Amino acid sequence: MNKLRSAAGLEQLRNRIMSQRDPERTCVVTSVGTCGLARGAAGVAQAIATELNKDGLKGTVDFRTTGCHGFCDIEPVVVIYPKRIVYCHVTTADVPQIISETVAKGKVIKRLLYTNPATGRKIVREQNIPFYGKQYRLLTDSIRFVDPHNIEDYIALGGYTALCKVLFDMHPEEVLDEISKSGLRGRGGAGFPTFRKWEAARNAPSCDGVRYIICNADEGDPGAYMDRSLLEGNPHSVIEGMIIGARTIGSHHGYVYVRNEYPLAVDNLGIALEQARQYGFLGKDILGSGFDFDVKISRGGGAFICGESTALMASLEGRIGEPRPKHIHTALKGLYDRPTNLNNVETWANVPLIINRGANWYSKIGTEGSKGTKIFSLVGKVNNTGLVEVPMGITLKEMVYDIGGGIPDGRKLKAIQTGGPSGGCIPESLIDLPVDFDKLTEAGSMMGSGGMIVMDEDNCMVDMARYFVKFLTEESCGKCVPCREGLDRMLDILTDITEGRGKPEDIELLEELGDVIKEASLCGLGGTAPNPVLSTIRYFHTF
After folding, report:
1. ∠ at Cα 240 (333, 307), nearest 5°?
2. Which residues, in sequence order, are CB contacts of 12 under 8 Å at separation 6+?
3. Which string of b and e fits 434-449 if b means at least 16 CB within 10 Å?
4. Residue 58 pLDDT
5. Counting beta carbons within 10 angstroms of the beta carbon of residue 54, is it exposed (0 to 12), middle (13 to 18) or buried (19 or more)?
6. What digits encode the pLDDT tens for the residues 385-423?
7. Is the pTM of this model over 0.70?
8. Which residues contact 364 (CB under 8 A, 6 or more apart)?
9. Are 162 and 348 in contact (CB under 8 A)?
């Protein structure tokens, strides 16, 4: 493939790709994200390729491997397009029948269909599964149509058109204005307005003109895997968002800081970056615009604290991943003391959508203060586990019961923990709470990066609080005293309570400790670490 030199070249390429694709032609799709691979999806994919070849269908039937479609609980999944017939928990032994019956003859195999646990009814088509009913899959729906190893799948869906628009039709100030009007807030946890970060990094003085763009893919929350799935399934959406951000800010150097425990995401991202260079979307003179930008991958060692911006940048520079006081924000003085803009994977993936469809369209989704959609990993005591993408403002009740299918075995819901280990536990009495940045904070929890753990009546809330504090105690870098000593003392008290040595005055001491740790800690880890304890006392203290 020769490098593309213009917007017209990209359009011609897209037209060629589309002319070679027939939407009515049968296409067998299987997801090989990390969740699918854990359940044998690699063997299923190999069996499909072998069987198609054996039956002489190769060349007449398309076959595509993708990232996770979201409903991790039913992996390995096989979908046959264009009818979108979906089969669940597929094994290699099922593949010959799928090819001979469904692919060759169009017959549906009833035993492999999804069964709605509420009605007992078999469901044929993917879009009719209740798990997807209330979702609004702006970022995740395209994963089912993209082989992350094939850049042309992304281009066929309109990929890199937003980049063309920014390069040839928009001034950087217009891009900033569009991001501002969209209301996009960072999806990494704090919910800071994205355009303000971009504006600060663009306007900050740099001694040599160098500015940096960073994608934070150091996703360390227990039970959270939204960023991993996006990088595995549609890495080009993240890359395109980063290039647009770089053009707007005036950066020519980008990094993706991704934890080393995400090998498939690292592999798929590496392939996508190389293909983007080959096609002319990265490197020198991108699409003939005169703009230069490239991205490097930096593998993190798996320290939770390195999700914090200053600790992440210290790690990127080869120093110990510890935070520093933010008297000067990283947008002004970040990586190598240069202006630096850091956003997480999900934030970057939103950017091409906003540029293509417009800020007015995007700002109509969600609530007054929280626009767009949010991806959550819905896990714990819930029937349907997986990745869910919902409009901001959806209620916890809709998420747990309409999307999650309720609590297994008819047990009673007790609490929902949001925001990762530094989040809080929201009781069943607040089940109608709308989910957005501000409402979760008012309830004593937070959005965080999007972890959502459901607990039933058998869960002990003190045990849960102790679990999260223990995690944070082990992950604290120990640089500041309030976090290092305070969390350790909290863990001692919680351990005493769970082992029968608790005293009534422990509650007051935990609240006092929590307030001090929140106020006096150096970084966001300590500033939010007491949330699980304080929210548990707030909602579940009964004496």
Report:
1. 45
2. none
3. bbbbebbeebbbbbbb
4. 76
5. exposed
6. 999 999 999 999 999 999 999 999 989 999 999 988 888
7. yes
8. none
9. no
